[in-house]
C-alpha cells in the first residue's frame, strides 16, 4: 500500500487521454484524495503525442514529483518520450495493439484496452478502459466508476452507458499476470472535494466579486477564463464579449468599469504588451481595472503552450511614464479564487489597475481543492458615492490620496476624466505644481500596502535559509523542502507590487540567506527586490527558463550549489 | 427645458480661431438641449487629437481616452449602463488610422450610441501630418512630395461594414449638423456621423470655401431615399463622398440585443450560498 502515486498517461492528442486522466482525478477527489495534474501539449492542434501526469495522495499536494510510478501508453511515442520520468521500479502499461515496448529493464505488460473497448461496442472507450485499469490497480471499487459513468453520460443514449459499463466489467475481470499489489492506495478521507484549474477559480472569483462584464481576446493560457465567464455571465445578467483585440478589450473594460460595472479582461504576454497604454490610462483616470496575466514563454510568440514567469519587468516597467498599480500573485487554485475577489476590492479601493498574475502551470493544472468558503460580505467598493456635489472634484487632494468617485448617471456629479495630466476637476492642466501634487497623490494611494504582511511563510526553525518564490512554484518548493527533511524555511510573496517592504526587510534582516526561485532568465523578482531594498549579498536566485516548471529535485540540486 | 449653455463648462477651447471643431461642439450641445438629455445621463467620450479635446468642453460626464480608442471605451460605458446617452467623437486619424479596426467592429456590434468623426483630412494636433483621409497629392510635413496612397472612403467603408446609420455634415452648416446629430442620437443602434471640419491651420486645400463648392446637399434632393442602401452607395460613388445629410438609415435597426433590461451597473448582484454550492458542485 502507498499513500501517494504518480501516473503518466499518454496518447494521441484529441483521442481523449487527457479527459480520461481528468475523470480519474475527479473520481479520486470524490473519494477524498488530493490530486494534482500536469498536461503537456503537442504543438499540433489535433494529433501528435500529449500526456497528462497526475499525482494522487492522501495529503495535499501542489506539484508533480520528478518520477512516476506508472506510465500508461496509448500510442508509440509516450514511452520513449517519457521513460526518463519513470521510477526504476516503475510499471509500464501499454495498449496491446502497440508493438512490444522493448523496455526490458522495467516491469511492463500489455493491456487489451482497445480490444476490450471494441468488444464492448466502440474503440472510443479505450481511454475509459485505461482509466478503469488504473482504478483497479489503485484498488478502487468498480461501483465507484459505475456511478461516475452513469452520472457523466446521464444525458446520453442508454446504449452509451451500457457499453461503458460493459467495458468496465471486462476491465475488472481481465486477469493481469503482473504483481501490482504494492500500488494499492491507502484509503482517502472520504470527503468529496472539487477539482479545478486556476483559470476556472479566477472566473468564479470574478463572478462572486460581482463582476458582470468581460471583454477579451483568446490566448493560451488565459482563454478558459473568457470561456467559463462566457457561459456564466449571461446567466446572471452579465456580458462576456470576444472583441477585436486586446487594446479594445482593455479599453472596453475601462469604459464598463468607469460606468460602474465591475469588469475584467484576461490575457497572456502578447496581449499584455498591447494593453500597456490602456493600463496607463486607467491609472491616470483612476479607474478601477482588473486584468489577469497568465504568463507563458516570451518574448514575442515564444513558446505559447509552455510555462514561464517572465512578465514581472513588463508589468513593473513596461508602460510609459510612472503610475501606481497592484500585482497579486496567487500560488494555488484556492488563492486564484480569493485573490480575484481581493483584486476587485483593491481596484475599487485604490482606484488603480490591479493585475492578477498567474502562470501557465497555475492557470491550467487541475488540482483537488479545499472547499471555497462562501461569504456574504466580501464586497468593498471604496469611496464610491451615490450623490454628486456642485463642481465635483473627482481628483481632489485628500489625506490618503484617494478621491471620492461618482458614476455617470449620478445627478450633480458630472465631471471629466482624461489621460492628460489634469486638475482636481479632471480638466487638462499644464501647471507644474499641480503635476507634482497629482503624481504624489497617485503614488500615495497604494503606499499603505507596503506595510502589509504579504509573504506567506512556513517555518521549520532549523537553518537560517529562506526559500522565497511566487505563483505555481510554491507547491514545488514546498515539496522540495519536505524531501530535503524540512531543513529550510520557505514561502511565497502574494503581492508583487507594491512589495511588502516592511515584512521583506524584516525577513532579510533575520535570515542569513534568502534564495529566490522563479521561472525566467534574469531572476526578475530577485532583481526587483534588490533594486528596492538592497541586501544584494544575502539574496541569490535560482531560475529556470526552458519552458517547463521546476521539479522538486531540480530545486534541491540547485540549492546544493548555493548552500 | 435645458439650454445649450447648460451643456458647456465655460472652458475656453484651445482650438485655433476658425477651426471647424467649434461648430461640432456647439452642434452637440444644441442637440443635447433640444433632446433634453439630462446632463448626468450624457457621456461624451473622445479620442486624442485637437478633436479629442471636445469632451473637456462639455458639461456632462466626459471621458478623454487615448488615441484611437474612444469607441471601445464608449461601448464599454454603454454596455455597462444602457440608460446613458453615449456620444463618442474624434479625428479622422483617430477613427480611420489608429482606431480603424475599432470603428469597423463598433459598426458590426450596432450598440446604441453615436460616433462623430471630426474629419479635417489632416492630423491637426501633431501639427500637420497626413491622414488616411488626405487626398492624393496632399502636401504635409510627412508627405513633403505629396500623399501617394489613395484615401479611405469613410462612407463606402461604413456602409459596406453593415452600418445601420450613416450621415455627413459640414461645420459651416450648423443647423443641418444639429439635425443630423439629433437623428443619430435617436437612432436605435450605432450611428456614425462624418463631419467635414476644416483645419484652418494645416489644411489649405480642403477649406470652407472648397467644401462650399464641392458638397451636394442630399436634403435638397426630394427623390433621395436614405433607407435605400443601393442608392446610398451610388450617391457616395457619384459625389466622391462629398455630400451632406442623412445618407443611410436602416429602419428596422433595434441596436444590439442586450441580455436583460436592467443596466449592468444596476443589477442585483447577490449570489446565494445555495447558488454558489450549485456552481461548485459542477466541479465534483
Ligand atoms: C499611440 C499614439 N500615437 C501617436 C500619438 C500622437 N498623436 C496625437 S493626435 C494624433 C493625430 C491627430 O489627428 P486626428 O485624429 O485626425 O485629429 P485632429 O488633431 O486632426 O483633430 C497623433 C498621431 C498619440 N497620442 N498616441
Ligand atoms: S490645428 Fe487645425 S484642427 Fe487643430 S485646432 Fe487648429 S485648426 Fe483646429
UniProtKB/TrEMBL annotation, chain A:
An example molecular function term from Gene Ontology annotations: oxidoreductase activity, acting on the aldehyde or oxo group of donors
Originating organism: Alkaliphilus serpentinus
Name of the protein in question: 2-oxoacid:acceptor oxidoreductase subunit alpha
NCBIfam families: OAFO_sf (TIGR03710)
Keywords: Oxidoreductase
High-level lineage: Bacteria, Bacillati, Bacillota, Clostridia, Peptostreptococcales
Residue ranges annotated for the Pyruvate/ketoisovalerate oxidoreductase catalytic domain, each copy included: 14-172
Annotated SUPFAM superfamilies: Pyruvate-ferredoxin oxidoreductase, PFOR, domain III, Thiamin diphosphate-binding fold (THDP-binding), TK C-terminal domain-like
BP GO annotations: response to oxidative stress
Pfam families registered for this protein in UniProt: PFOR_II (PF17147), POR (PF01558), POR_N (PF01855)
InterPro entries given in the database record: 2-oxoacid/accept_OxRdtase_asu, PFOR_II, Pyruvate:ferred/Flavod_OxRd, Pyrv/ketoisovalerate_OxRed_cat, Pyrv_Fd/Flavodoxin_OxRdtase_N, Pyrv_flavodox_OxRed_cen, THDP-binding, Transketo_C/PFOR_II
UniProt domain Pyruvate:ferredoxin oxidoreductase core: residue ranges: 465-554
Domain named Pyruvate flavodoxin/ferredoxin oxidoreductase pyrimidine binding: residues: 205-437
Domain of life of the source: Bacteria
From TrEMBL, chain B:
Assigned keywords, A-Z: Iron, Iron-sulfur, Magnesium, Metal-binding, Oxidoreductase, Thiamine pyrophosphate
Molecular-function GO terms, alphabetical: iron-sulfur cluster binding; metal ion binding; oxidoreductase activity, acting on the aldehyde or oxo group of donors, iron-sulfur protein as acceptor; thiamine pyrophosphate binding
Thiamine pyrophosphate enzyme TPP-binding domain boundaries: 48-195
BP terms from Gene Ontology: cellular respiration
InterPro entries: 2-oxoacid:Fd_oxidoreductase (IPR051457), OFOB (IPR011896), PFO_beta_C (IPR032686), THDP-binding (IPR029061), TPP_enzyme_TPP-bd (IPR011766)
Presence of keyword Oxidoreductase: yes
Domain Pyruvate ferredoxin oxidoreductase beta subunit C-terminal span(s) in chain numbering: 199-252
Superkingdom: Bacteria
Co-factor requirement: [4Fe-4S] cluster; thiamine diphosphate; Mg(2+)
PANTHER family: 2-OXOGLUTARATE OXIDOREDUCTASE SUBUNIT KORB, 2-OXOGLUTARATE OXIDOREDUCTASE SUBUNIT KORB-RELATED
Entries under NCBIfam families matching the protein: PorB_KorB
Name listed for the protein in its UniProt record: 2-oxoacid:ferredoxin oxidoreductase subunit beta
Species assigned in the record: Alkaliphilus serpentinus
Amino acid at each position: 500500500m502507498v499513500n501517494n502515486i504518480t501516473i503518466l498517461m499518454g496518447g494521441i492528442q484529441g483521442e481523449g487521454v487527457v479527459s480520461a486522466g481528468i475523470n480519474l482525478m475527479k473520481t479520486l477527489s470524490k473519494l477524498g484524495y488530493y490530486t494534482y495534474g500536469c498536461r503537456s501539449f503537442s504543438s499540433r492542434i489535433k494529433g501528435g503525442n500529449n500526456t497528462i501526469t497526475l499525482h494522487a495522495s492522501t495529503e495535499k499536494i501542489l506539484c508533480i514529483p520528478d518520477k512516476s510510478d506508472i506510465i500508461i501508453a496509448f500510442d508509440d511515442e509516450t514511452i520513449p518520450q517519457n521513460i526518463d520520468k519513470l521510477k526504476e521500479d516503475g510499471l509500464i502499461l501499454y495498449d496491446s495493439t502497440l508493438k512490444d515496448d522493448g523496455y526490458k529493464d522495467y516491469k511492463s505488460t500489455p493491456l487489451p484496452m482497445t480490444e476490450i473497448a471494441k468488444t464492448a461496442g466502440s474503440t472510443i472507450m479505450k481511454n475509459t478502459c485505461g482509466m478503469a485499469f488504473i482504478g483497479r490497480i489503485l484498488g478502487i471499487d468498480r461501483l465507484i466508476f459505475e456511478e461516475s459513468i452513469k452520472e457523466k453520460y446521464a444525458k446520453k443514449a442508454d446504449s452509451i452507458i451500457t457499453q461503458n459499463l460493459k467495458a468496465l466489467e471486462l476491465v475488472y475481470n481481465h486477469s493481469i499476470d503482473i504483481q501490482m499489489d504494492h500500488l494499492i492506495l491507502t484509503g482517502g478521507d472520504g470527503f468529496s472535494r472539487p477539482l479545478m484549474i486556476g483559470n476556472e477559480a479566477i472566473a468564479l472569483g470574478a463572478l462572486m466579486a460581482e463582476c458582470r462584464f468581460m471583454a477579451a481576446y483568446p490566448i493560451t493560457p488565459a482563454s478558459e477564463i473568457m470561456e467559463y465567464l462566457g457561459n456564466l455571465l449571461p446567466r446572471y445578467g452579465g456580458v462576456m464579449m470576444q472583441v477585436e483585440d486586446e487594446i479594445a478589450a482593455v479599453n472596453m473594460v475601462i469604459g464598463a468599469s468607469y460606468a460602474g460595472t465591475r469588469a475584467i479582461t484576461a490575457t497572456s504576454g502578447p496581449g499584455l504588451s498591447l494593453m500597456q497604454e490602456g493600463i496607463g490610462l486607467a491609472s491616470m483616470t483612476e479607474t478601477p481595472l482588473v486584468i489577469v496575466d497568465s504568463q507563458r514563454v516570451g518574448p514575442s510568440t515564444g513558446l505559447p503552450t509552455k510555462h514561464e514567469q517572465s512578465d514581472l519587468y513588463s508589468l513593473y516597467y513596461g508602460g510609459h511614464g510612472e503610475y501606481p498599480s497592484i500585482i497579486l500573485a496567487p500560488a494555488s487554485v484556492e488563492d486564484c479564487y480569493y485573490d480575484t475577489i481581493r483584486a476587485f476590492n483593491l481596484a475599487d479601493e485604490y482606484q488603480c489597475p490591479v493585475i492578477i498574475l498567474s502562470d501557465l502551470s497555475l492557470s491550467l493544472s487541475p488540482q483537488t481543492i479545499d472547499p471555497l468558503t462562501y461569504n456574504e460580505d466580501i464586497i468593498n467598493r471604496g469611496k464610491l458615492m451615490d450623490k454628486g456635489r456642485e463642481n465635483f472634484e473627482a481628483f481632489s487632494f485628500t489625506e490618503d490620496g484617494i478621491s471620492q468617485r461618482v458614476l455617470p448617471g449620478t445627478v450633480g456629479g458630472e465631471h471629466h476624466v482624461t489621460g492628460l495630466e489634469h486638475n482636481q476637476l479632471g480638466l487638462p492642466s499644464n501647471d507644474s505644481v499641480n503635476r507634482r501634487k497629482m503624481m504624489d497623490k497617485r503614488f500615495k494611494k497604494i503606499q499603505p500596502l507596503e506595510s502589509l504582511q504579504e509573504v506567506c511563510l512556513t517555518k521549520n526553525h532549523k537553518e537560517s535559509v529562506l526559500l522565497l518564490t511566487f505563483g505555481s512554484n510554491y507547491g514545488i518548493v514546498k515539496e522540495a523542502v519536505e524531501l530535503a527533511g524540512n531543513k529550510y524555511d520557505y514561502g511565497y510573496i502574494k503581492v508583487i507590487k507594491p512589495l511588502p517592504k516592511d515584512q521583506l526587510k524584516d525577513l532579510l534582516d533575520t535570515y542569513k540567506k534568502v534564495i529566490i526561485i522563479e521561472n525566467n532568465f534574469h531572476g526578475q523578482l530577485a532583481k526587483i527586490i534588490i533594486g528596492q531594498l538592497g541586501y544584494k549579498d544575502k539574496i541569490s536566485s535560482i531560475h529556470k527558463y526552458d519552458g517547463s516548471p521546476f521539479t522538486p529535485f531540480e530545486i534541491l540540486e540547485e540549492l546544493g550549489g548555493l548552500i | 427645458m435645458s439650454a445649450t449653455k447648460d451643456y458647456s463648462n465655460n472652458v475656453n477651447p484651445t482650438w485655433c480661431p476658425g477651426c471647424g471643431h467649434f461648430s461640432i461642439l456647439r452642434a452637440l450641445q444644441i442637440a443635447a438641449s433640444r433632446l433634453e438629455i439630462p446632463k448626468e445621463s450624457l457621456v461624451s467620450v473622445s479620442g486624442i487629437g485637437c478633436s479629442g479635446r471636445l469632451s473637456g468642453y462639455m458639461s456632462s460626464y466626459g471621458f478623454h481616452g487615448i488615441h484611437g480608442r474612444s469607441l471601445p471605451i464608449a461601448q464599454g460605458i454603454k454596455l455597462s449602463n444602457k440608460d446613458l446617452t453615449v456620444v463618442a467623437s474624434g479625428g479622422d486619424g483617430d477613427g480611420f488610422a489608429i482606431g480603424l479596426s475599432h470603428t469597423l467592429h463598433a459598426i458590426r456590434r450596432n450598440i446604441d450610441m453615436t460616433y462623430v468623426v471630426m474629419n479635417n483630412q489632416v492630423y491637426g494636433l501633431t501639427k500637420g501630418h497626413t491622414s488616411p483621409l488626405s487626398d492624393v497629392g496632399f502636401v504635409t510635413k510627412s508627405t513633403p512630395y505629396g500623399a501617394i496612397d489613395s484615401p479611405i472612403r469613410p462612407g463606402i467603408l461604413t456602409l459596406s461594414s453593415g452600418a445601420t446609420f450613416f450621415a455627413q455634415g459640414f461645420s459651416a452648416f450648423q443647423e443641418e449638423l444639429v439635425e443630423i446629430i439629433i437623428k443619430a442620437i435617436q437612432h436605435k443602434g450605432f450611428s456614425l456621423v462624418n463631419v467635414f471640419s476644416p483645419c484652418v491651420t494645416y489644411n489649405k486645400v480642403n477649406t470652407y470655401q472648397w467644401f462650399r463648392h464641392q458638397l451636394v446637399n442630399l436634403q435638397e434632393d426630394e427623390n433621395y431615399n436614405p433607407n435605400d442602401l443601393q442608392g446610398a452607395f451610388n450617391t457616395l460613388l457619384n459625389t466622391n463622398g462629398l455630400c451632406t445629410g442623412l445618407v443611410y438609415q436602416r429602419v428596422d435597426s433595434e441596436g444590439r440585443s442586450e441580455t436583460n433590461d436592467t443596466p449592468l451597473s444596476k443589477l442585483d448582484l447577490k449570489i446565494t450560498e445555495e447558488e454558489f454550492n450549485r456552481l461548485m458542485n459542477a466541479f465534483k
